[in-house]
Amino acid sequence: MIEFKSLSLRDREWVTQRLLEDDRQACEYSFANNFCGAIFTA
Asked: Which of 2, 6, 16, 17 is the most exposed place for a label (fewest CB within 10 A)?
């Protein structure tokens, strides 16, 4: 089973690197948008 956790500011560097690996130019591929979305959907 996959364990999910809430996105935090400590995850910024790791998440940013993973998003850059995919090399997509969409707005949902930024840490800021994912972080703000996580706050409103929690």
From this structure: 2
Beta strands in the chain (DSSP E): none
Cβ(37)–Cβ(27) under 8 Å? no
- Measure CA 27 to chain center: 11
| Residue 41 CA, distance from chain mean position | 13
Tokens of 7: 């996105």
Rounded to whole angstroms, the Cα distance separating 16 from 27 reads 13
Instruction: Work out the end-to-end distance of the chain between its first and last CA atoms, rounded to an integer number of angstroms.
Output: 21
